[in-house]
Amino acid sequence: MSGRSRAAALLTALMAFGAVLVPSAHATAGVPKAPDTAVLDGSRLQRAKAELDRGDPRLRRALRDLTTRADAWLDQGPWTVVDKPRPAPGGDVHDYLSQAPYWWPTTTPTAGNPWGCPYVQRDGLRNPEVDSGTDRQDVEKVFDSTYDLSLAWYYTGKRAYAEKAGRILRTWFLDPATRMNPNLDHAQFIPCKYDGRAIGIIDFSQSYTSVADALAILGAGAPGWSAADRAAMRSWNTDFLDWLKDSAFGKEEGAAANNHGTFYDMQLAALAYATGDKALARRTVLDARARRIDPQIAGDGSQPQELARTRSWHYSTFDLVAYTRLAAIGRHVGVNLWAYRGPDGQSLFKAVDYLLPAATGSAAWPHPELEFHRYAASDVVHAAADAGDRAAQQAVRRLEAPPGGDLWALRPAAEQLDSIAG
Q: Between 136-156 and 57-73, two packed helices, what is the crossing angle to 10 degrees?
């Protein structure tokens, strides 16, 4: 064999040996990198993806439920703030507009009084007119669809999911002709009374962290989601975070002493983390101990402000969605919110345990509730179980699966599983 032939043979052998040591790009393409998510645990998503690829039957069942949801979004949207029948009170069609859900007209609308003013509050009773003529339902579709689609892309690698998520995000947030201005100046307005209210921030705070995580998932290498898209969304989120911190509405919502305040903190911490201000994210989670848990959770685990509502079960689980997601953000910035104990024994574990009898069906919920759904507590019980709560761990097998299946194994961050009314 000539010297050149021996050299070629040696090179071939070395390349083959190297291929054993270093997997090819094709071999690793099935497991994207762990996304730097704010609420979800990116490393846990990556492990779930690897287990799915090995054929884990439980995860495959959950994936069927997830892709069923994602497939349904492929033929819907995109949505935009500029297509509502009339602009927000300020006149700019790019401003988000929603209407207070529990406020109702008292008279029949006329030419001189087209809204039927004055409006009065009926707590827990949703006025159907809030679902038409504003941006509320469309923005919830943006939040839900991008979350489902990005997760479905991550686990399946199906390009169509990522491309659809990108199209929805660009239409709502980025394209100059259709983008939303990064403020909530006209959220939950009340006709003839208020052009917008601080309380309307919850339209975003209750679900927008899902978009922050969807962006991180797409940033793990999704096709059709460019570096320019990533930079533009980071800029939008930075502007929105500044509005939350500095506006009068933002400061008022941050001072709320019920679920509104908890969700505000959760949104603030998530956006701070997503835009690189980890110090603010950490400070927000730390402050939630004395600022939220101490005054909002009683020593027995009940949440008095939420129990006072006509939908006390819904709002007790709802507030814990914010707390458990805030605790998840804390994990990324070195704060264990689950370990905190207040001066009267308050804790997130106690708050979840307070729900367990009703969540497992072993006892009736002893407080007012217009529309009880046992499954509403399923995600927050999962969150407590994952955090080490033994009572919650024992309760998991007795939970009621929500409509559409239990997706916890693939997206382990609590969602509000019953209807969100306001």
A: 140
Q: Give the DSSP letter of residue 174.
A: I
- 86, with CB counted inside 10 A (0-12, 13-18, 19+), is exposed
Q: Please give the full DSSP string across 95-160, using - where no structure is assigned.
A: S-EEE-TTEEESS---SSSTT-SSEEE-TT---GGGGSSSSHHHHHHHHHHHHHHHHHHHHH--HH
Tens digits of residue pLDDT in 107-138: 998 888 888 899 999 988 888 888 888 999 99
What is residue 30's predicted lDDT score, i.e. its pLDDT?
54
Looking at the DSSP bridge assignments, the partners of residue 120 are 104
E strand spans, 361-409:
none
Closest CA to 372 of 393, 385, 355, 392: 355
In angstroms, the CA 281 to CA 119 distance is 38
Q: Are 337 and 327 in contact (CB under 8 A)?
A: yes
pLDDT at 420: 64
Strand pairing report for 186-189 and 97-99: parallel
Contacts of 231 (CB under 8 A, 6+ apart): none
How do beta strands 103-105 and 119-121 pair? antiparallel
Give the separation between CA 311 and CA 328, rounded to whole angstroms.
Answer: 26
CA distance 178 to 163: 18
Residue 105 has phi, psi (to 5 degrees) of: -70, 155
**DSSP label at 190?**
B
